[in-house]
Amino acid sequence: MRDRTIGQPLARDAMAYVLAGGRGSRLKELTDNRAKPAVYFGGVSRIIDFALSNAINSGIRRIGVATQYKAHSLIRHMNRAWNFMRPERNESFDILPASQRVSEHQWYEGTADAVFQNIDIIQAHAPKYMVILAGDHIYKMDYELMLQQHVSSGADVTVGCLVVPKKDATGFGVMAMDEASTITAFVEKPADPPTIPGDDAHSLASMGIYVFETKFLFEQLQRDAADPASSRDFGGDIIPYIVKHGKAVAHRFTDSCIRAAEEIEEYWRDVGTLDAYFDANLDLTDTVPKLNMYDRDWPIWTDQVVAAPAKFVHDEEGRRGMAISSLISQDCIVSGALARRSLLFTGVKMGSFSSVEEGVILPYCNIGRGAQLKRVILDSGVRIPEGLVVGEDPELDARRFRRTENGVCLITKAMIDRLA
């Protein structure tokens, strides 16, 4: 969906504020040294690039990013990839690490507190609207359309939401609403989720996306900060309070999702587990992928490494450099090896007679000669020994590596070091 209401874009008066401080502990060792939004995705990108690209493509030119957990990798990426905003064009990009700005003993205590502690910085940019975003989901969305609904409905807050099966809604913040899309209840991770009017099989789940007028948001944050019983969280405190005392409206993702012509479904993924992360990456290798990363009308911006093109060498029977149904990034060398339905991120090297089938191979990994890998995630910089076999013996794999319920093996440098 790309049509917009004719008139002055509301995005020009908005600021996007991305909450990117979470670890993402369900990604296990993949987030030992980086926050979840900094995790690599799709061959060239980081997870946070999707929320930031949506903001830029929607016309928002003032952006703040709140960081906390092990933020160095994330901050370095944003400094490299997102330093093109120009103050003289009324653009800004603020990286806002937790820095005890309110109290010498207080880091960000919750999602709402991560905004509250930076009110003065936001005020300096004077946005009329605030678009609060989670920095750890994969999707394409036009926030301008959500802003338009917010203004036309007269809402105090507009909440982005997904239609999900009721049985899957227990892990989300879930909304009950009336036929006018006014939210009548908002509950976090309910055992018995409320359903959509007229559809008992589905629920409306929060995407962690909220639109406010800035003045109203500040009032709510200040009220919440004065409440000693609050957990300082949007989903747990701010939104339920507004539902009870004001007007909260649901905005369905179907009304503002971005789809290229060949994309069938409205694509949104929480890649919060290793299996979900693996599946979402492998989705991109399909002939017609569910998520189109080649859409030049809605590009996913990221740090573009200056490197040589990918290279495939050797053309002998049994020793032929090939990639089938795979994404191969810059600076990769596939030397007499085979990549099948896999993603090779920047700088991956594959030695002769090695193979990877259904692999997510993060940057600068080296796969030794004769290694045979199936259904794996390799953390960045891993060096696979010659002849190593993964994906044939589940019990052996589970003893050596992190093996998921779906049979995906996460392999890190420390795990390889223990094999020596």
From TrEMBL:
What are its GO biological-process terms? glycogen biosynthetic process
Which residues hold alpha-D-glucose 1-phosphate? 108, 173, 188-189, 206
Kindly list the GO molecular function terms attached to this UniProt entry: ATP binding; glucose-1-phosphate adenylyltransferase activity
Q: Where is this site: Could play a key role in the communication between the regulatory and the substrate sites?
A: 68, 107
Task: Report whether Nucleotide-binding shows up as a keyword of the record.
Answer: yes
Catalytic activity line of the entry: alpha-D-glucose 1-phosphate + ATP + H(+) = ADP-alpha-D-glucose + diphosphate
Matching InterPro entries, A to Z?
A: ADP-Glc_PPase, ADP_Glu_pyroP_CS, GlgC_bac, GlmU/GlgC-like_hexapep, NTP_transferase_dom, Nucleotide-diphossugar_trans, Trimer_LpxA-like_sf
Determine if Nucleotidyltransferase is one of this entry's keywords.
Answer: yes
Signal sequence residues: none
Domain named Glucose-1-phosphate adenylyltransferase/Bifunctional protein GlmU-like C-terminal hexapeptide: which ranges? 308-411
Q: Which residues form the Nucleotidyl transferase domain?
A: 17-286
Family membership noted in the UniProt record: Belongs to the bacterial/plant glucose-1-phosphate adenylyltransferase family.
- Oligomeric state and partners? Homotetramer.
Entry protein name: Glucose-1-phosphate adenylyltransferase
Q: From which organism does this entry originate? A: Novosphingobium olei
